[in-house]
Write a structure and sequence with these properties.
The complex is a heterodimer of chains A (172) and B (175). Chain A is an alpha+beta fold and 172 residues long. Helix content of chain A is 26%, strand content 23%. The N and C termini of chain A lie far apart (36 Å). With 175 residues, chain B is of the alpha/beta class. Chain B has 6 helices and 7 strands. In chain B, strand 6, helix 5 and strand 7 form a beta-alpha-beta unit. In chain B, helix 3 runs parallel beside helix 4. The chains are: A alpha+beta (172), B alpha/beta (175). Chains A and B meet through helix 1, helix 2 and helix 3 of A and helix 4 and helix 5 of B.
Chain lengths: 172, 175
Amino acid sequence: MKKAAQHTEVKPIKIELVSDPMYLCGARELVSCIAHRVGFGDIECSKIALALDEAMCNIIRHGYQRQTDRPIWLTIYPQKPDEMSFGGIEIVIEDEAKQINPDTIIGRDLSDIKPGGLGVHIMREVMDKVVFEKRGSKGMRLRMSKSAPRPDHAPRIGQRSSGPTPTQRQVS
Amino acid sequence: MPHELGKDRRARPQRSVKFPDTIMGTPRLFLPRAVVALAGCTCTVCRPERALTGQRRDMMASSDNDFIRTELPTSGVVVISPTNDVDMSRSPILRAAIKGKLKKGLDRMIIDLCEVQYMDSSGLATLVEAMRIAKNESVSLHLVSMTPKVRAIFEIARLDAFFSIKDSRQEALDS
């Protein structure tokens, strides 16, 4: 029987956090460790942790208006590498913040150098796929995924990733 | 009960516990085992910091209270060194430290990032703001000793060309 060319699915981990910036470091460590186990290199793990951090910062800053006692649910779906694929990771972040039109969440022009407004750009630059959606009756959901690179194409430390540009990616 | 003493030695014969020969001048042989273990046990349960890698041990040791180190190597030059990751919870501390020192009359500010393994967009925003103030005040601002992970973040945000990034403090002082 022919084996399907799919990632080896592993049961996800789901944790509930409060919207306190103090706990961002714990979420970063968690996703970074899992990404490492899945097969990402050090720099890529750091970038994935950055994307998660930016997403959670946006929820705290814009969604919850810096309230520190609101819930954020983080679910990580690791996809282990096997002989047919190179694994990957999907991160789902849910909140109970005010719902907004997902189409209005766009990054700003980077040629205008000013403080702030980099979060969405960073998420889309780092991850292969970034999807914002409304979550039932209240709150928003963000799905981000990234496939592990082939071992012979993995960027080395200090080398810029050779992945597709944000405009080439399928982003909704 | 101390962790190591409760173990079956036959089960894990290779595990070594280094006790001191004396504790406060008293030979170890004459002290109760519990006292010896509490004072001198080096296992990872009695001394959890031993189980951590270098980077994480540094993270434990460095709290938000000593997050910023400031030095004045020569007249007119100030060096600000964050000693841990710069994220949303810590960037206001860095911003306050920079703004406190970035005044007219200062010749050069060096921000040493050698101990920063991670920086998010709030940290980048803090540094962009600092650069703008520095330009207004005619202060030369340099970022030095950036780790590869932090440099990658600057590249993602396409800010690596905006800042003066040097490999070492000396290079920033000489420029």
